[in-house]
Amino acid sequence: MKTINASWLLKEPSPEEPPQKCEVCGKIGPTRVASSATGATSFRYCVPCLTKGREPYGALVASLIGMESMKDVADWYKGSIIATLKAEGKTQEELWKNVEAITSAYAKAKGWL
Ligand SMILES: [Zn+2]
Predict the structure, then answer these.
(1) In this structure, what is the dihedral angle of CA atoms 96, 102, 108, 112, given to the nearest 10 degrees?
(2) 42, pLDDT greater than 90
(3) How many angstroms does the Cα of residue 109 sit away from the middle of ligand 1?
(4) What is the pTM of this model?
């Protein structure tokens, strides 16, 4: 599981820093922009989402295009997947149905199917 030393995140935000929306859970509050495990991108995370390795669900699904199950996923990424599913109240079965749907839609859009 991805573990992050987020002590710098726990500092009080400066008064000039307005509360922002977490791109994972949608809560408004202290957030930080950090590199995402889903790929070469960044998102705005609240402290609980960042420290637990949660990712925006749509980005998570998109990052798994072409894969069929957890056996296709690198071990270091599995913790983020499990943490995200738990936060979203989704099962692995639901995740892989979503991945299959987006993989098929992508292939059709490209004219591969
Ligand atoms: Zn959050």
Answers:
(1) -60
(2) yes
(3) 32
(4) 0.84
